[in-house]
Amino acid sequence: MFLDLKVTKVAETISEWRAGDVAAYKARKDNILIRLEAFMLNGDNILDASKIQQSVFPESDIDVFISHSHADQDQAIKVALSLEEIGLKPFVDSCVWAHADELLQKIDDVFSKPDGWTAYSYELRNRTTTNVHLILNAALQHMIQRAELFIFLGTKSSIKLEDHISNHEQLSSPWIFSELTFVDNAKRTPRKQIVVTTENEKFEARAADEKAVEFRYRLPDSTYTIEFGRFEEWLSIDPIPGFTPDFVRHVKGLEHLDRLYKMLGVGAALLDAPRFV
After folding, report:
1. How many structural domains comprise the chain?
2. Which pLDDT band holds residue 46 (cuts at 50, 70, 90)?
3. Deepest in the core among 51, 123, 147, 267, taking most CB within 10 A?
4. Cα separation of 264 and 204, whole Å?
């Protein structure tokens, strides 16, 4: 990950995208098949964490990781659609959680009901939930590290203000808290470089109505912050024609990211490395 960014004052809509576009994006991402038997080691009752991660998180080559409240999923998808329009590969974290819930239920149906029981065992289900969440959290962190840009949509749904105590922003989602805490401590890497060979082109990230209990987490600071109005202006610069080849679209998308970094005032030394090598 090269840079993390908090987007504030997020508008409820991006007029370019309609409900049908959002539904089509969700359908495009809803192609993960949860087959519990495929996660077993040697047919035993041992689950392979790496196989679970590869199944639920099939995308590996991404440019922008979008962190957001579940209530803001449609807004996050509209941002993702705009990023795709300028040639970038976004990842919307909430698009995998329905599959995570499906996975957890299938595991519980097999492993959390002792013989003769019709309900789950509290102790067994605690164990499965903890393990699945830790496995998926590790996969999320890997996705964040692979992305060049991390975006957090700071909306009223994701941030709560702690009244009468302090002015510190509070989070209501443990997943957002985990993502932002990881980002706060993650090692920064250089921007992606475009490696051109005689055979093909490739991109590398060079190293370089029910009442429920609610928890609150202190919001870790983001390195950069931008208001949604300016962010949307950046998104709308130089749209790429639809017939443009994928490789060219991706190159232009990464160049578009450099425009954003300059808008944010990222140090010139960090942008000196050429995109092409």
Report:
1. 1
2. confident
3. 147
4. 24
The larger pLDDT score, comparing residue 208 to residue 139, is at: 139
Strand order through the sheet with 90-92: 90-92, 64-67, 149-153, 3-8, 224-227
- pLDDT 10s digits, 175-218: 888 899 999 988 899 898 887 765 555 555 444 444 555 556 67
Classify residue 67: in a domain, yes or no.
Answer: yes
What DSSP letter does each residue of 81-132 carry, written as one string? Answer: HHHHHTT--EEEGGGGHHHHHHHHHHHHHHHSS-TT-SS--HHHHHHHHHHH
HSE (CB half, 13 Å, CA atoms) of 209? 0
CA dist., res. 159 & res. 6, Å (int): 12
In a domain, 236, yes or no: yes
pTM of the model: 0.82
Task: Identify whether the C-beta of residue 143 lies closer than 8 Å to the C-beta of residue 178.
Answer: no
Nearest partner of 33 among 91, 98, 94, 93, judged by Cα = 98
Q: Which domain holds residue 43?
A: 3-188+212-240
- The encoded tokens of residue 132 equal 């699945």
For helices 122-146 and 49-56, the axis angle rounded to 10 degrees is 60
Predicted local distance difference test score (pLDDT) of residue 9: 86
Residue 229 three-state SS: helix
Task: Give residues with Cβ within 8 angstroms of 130, minimum separation 6.
Answer: none
CA–CA dist 168, 264 (Å, integer): 23
Listed in sequence order, the residues at least 6 apart from 137 whose beta carbon sits closer than 8 Å to its beta carbon are 175, 178
Amino acid at residue number 194: I
pLDDT of residue 214: 58
User: CA 9, CA 7: separation in Å to the nearest integer?
Assistant: 7
- Contact between 179 and 140 under an 8 Å Cβ cutoff? The reply is yes
Q: Residue 32 falls within a domain, yes or no? A: yes
Residue 250, domain member (yes or no)? no
